[in-house]
Amino acid sequence: MMRDDFKIKTFKTKIFSDCADLNGMKEMYKTGYVSGFTTNPTLMKKAGVTDYEQFARSAIQAIPDMPLSFEVFSDDFETMEREAGKIGGLGGNVFVKIPITNSKGESSLNLIKKLSAEGFKLNVTAVFTPRQAEAAVQALYPRVGAYVSVFAGRIADTGVDPMPIMKQTADLCHSVDNVKSLWASARELLNIFQAEECGVDIITVTNDILKKIPLIGKNLTQFSLETVRMFYNDAGSLGYKIV
Q1: 140 Rama sector, left if φ>0, alpha if ψ -120 to 50, beta otherwise
Q2: Mean of the per-residue pLDDT values for the chain?
Q3: CA distances from 233 to 24, 108, 212, 226 (A)
Q4: How many helices (H) does the chain have, and how many strands (E)?
Q5: pLDDT digit string (tens) for 152-173?
Q6: Rounded mean pLDDT of 124-145?
Q7: Domain assignment present for 133
Q8: 240 or 87: which leads in pLDDT
Q9: Do the domain assignments include residue 227?
Q10: With bands split at pLDDT 50, 70 and 90, how would you rate the model's confidence at 87?
C-alpha cells in the first residue's frame, strides 16, 4: 500500500470500482481500496462482454463477498421485472440496477416500489435531479438494501456543481434505513474527497482513476520536477529541434 493509503482507508465514503472487465475487477479486488463493484451495459460493450449472464456469474464467483451491481437492459417494465428476477437470483451479494426512467422518459418508480417491496436489493441508477433522488428514496422499501446513484460526474459536465445535490441526496438516503447515497461517474480522484465532504455513502470510480490513489499526498514540488523531466525526455526521444 502507498504511504498515504490511510487517507482513503479511513473515509466513511466507500469506494466501488466501476468496471466490466473481469481481470480489472479481480485486480482491484486484491488492492484493498474497494468495497464493491458496479457495471453497466456500456462498460460491458467497451470490455467486449458478449454473454451477460456468464460474465455476471464469473464476477460473482471471483468476488463473492462484496456487493456487485448488474443492470437490466430492456426498455419495457414487464421485461425489466423478469430480468431483475433473474439478475437478483444470481447471488446474495447482487444489486439490480434499475434506471430511474426508461428510454422514453417513462418513470420506473412503480417497478422500483414493487421490486423493493419483494425484497430485491436495488441500485436506482441514472439519477440526475434532486426530484428524481427524492422520488427514488420514497419508492424504496426500508431495510431491504438499496443505492440511489446520482451521476455527479455528468452533472458536473454540464457546468453545474454537483456537491449541493449530493449533500441533499445523502441526507435523504440517511433518513431511510439501509438506503445508501452513491456518487456515480467520478471524473477525477478529487471526487472521492468531495464525496466524503458531502457525506455520501459510496462513490463509483473507474480503475484508471483508482490507479492514481498512490499519488495522494505526493509532494507537489517533486511532482513538478518529474513532469518537467517527462516533457524533456519525451521531446528528446522524438529528436525535436527548434534552433
Answers
A1: beta
A2: 95
A3: 30, 54, 22, 10
A4: 12, 8
A5: 999 999 999 999 999 999 999 9
A6: 97
A7: yes
A8: 87
A9: no
A10: very high
- Other beta carbons less than 10 A from residue 153's beta carbon: 19
What 3-state class would DSSP assign to 66? coil
75: cell is 426498455
Give domain status of residue 200, yes or no. Answer: yes
pLDDT over 90 at 136, yes or no: yes
- Where in the sequence is the domain holding 97, given as residue range(s)? 5-217
Cβ neighbors of 171 (< 8 A, separation 6 or more) are: 199
Return the active site residues. 97
**How many angstroms separate the CA atoms of 148 and 183, rounded?**
9
In the chain, the number of structural domains is: 1
C-alpha to C-alpha distance for 177 and 89, rounded to whole angstroms = 23
Q: What is the CATH number of the domain that holds 102?
A: 3.20.20.70
Residue 241 lies in a domain: no
CA angle 35, 55, 101 (to 5 degrees): 75
Q: Do residues 58 and 50 make contact, with C-beta atoms less than 8 angstroms apart?
A: no
| This prediction's pTM | 0.94
**Computed over its alpha carbons, how large is the radius of gyration of the chain?**
20
From residue 35, alpha-carbon distances to 41, 152, 192, 203 in Å are 21, 20, 14, 10
Q: How many residues does the chain have?
A: 243
Crossing angle of helices 109-117 and 77-88, in 10° steps, is 30
Q: Between β-strands 122-127 and 146-150, what pairing exists: parallel, antiparallel or unpaired?
A: parallel
Q: What is the DSSP letter of 141?
A: P
| C-beta of residue 117 within 8 angstroms of C-beta of residue 129 | no
